[in-house]
Design brief:
6 helices, alpha+beta, about 240 residues, elongated, 2 domains, 10 strands, about 30% strand, Glutamine Phosphoribosylpyrophosphate, subunit 1, domain 1
Amino acid sequence: MCGIVGYIGKKDVDSVILVGLEKLEYRGYDSEGFASIVKGELFIKKKKGRISELAKILNSTSIPSNIGIGHTRWATHGKPSDENAHPHIDCKKTFAIVHNGIIENFRELKRKLEKKHNWSSDTDTEIIVHLLEENYKGDFLERVLNNIKNAVSKINDIPEEVKGPDVTEITTDEFPILQVSISGAKSYSDLRKSTKIIEDRILRIKGVARIEKTGVRDKVIYIDADRKKLNYYFSQSFKLISK
């Protein structure tokens, strides 16, 4: 079985990673490796055999860094060797990864990418780092923030008609799913009418071709303090299908 250790802190990263790997020796392994970032570049060392072999290499090298990952490997795809030990890096030396598990369809994925990349191992894991290289565009944090901003802007762009007086709230856990809370109906017939009205409103949103109802989250019937006014409240999910 594989062992994985990661560290960010103020201590000597190589010492912390080595101690962590030694504590995972009981899991069994045939090779081990270490990756860090030194002066803005990836620093990789890996070795077949015991952790003590890797320790000799790291202890003879200055590693001024406070971030790193370490790995002990039990061979599945590819024989025990320095080359097949983790971490693996991409062609541009932008990413270093370690992995525990088996990628069942790695041969299929590799056939699609093998002519575009330089391969340094016989492992299934290496496909991950080349997939990252293939699909990475810019900064990860920037992309995440942009995706959040885009989702929020799409919600804010919903016409006021959709946010009409009968709609108490519009939320989204994962765009393009909208959760619309509706109140003010006096009967289930009114609920159906309200749903149809909301559907028509949503279809007016630019770029929306059609919508699918994905389930009613809840239905609540309540009355006012004088017990004279009956109201229905419900929350309906709509999936927006783009043109």
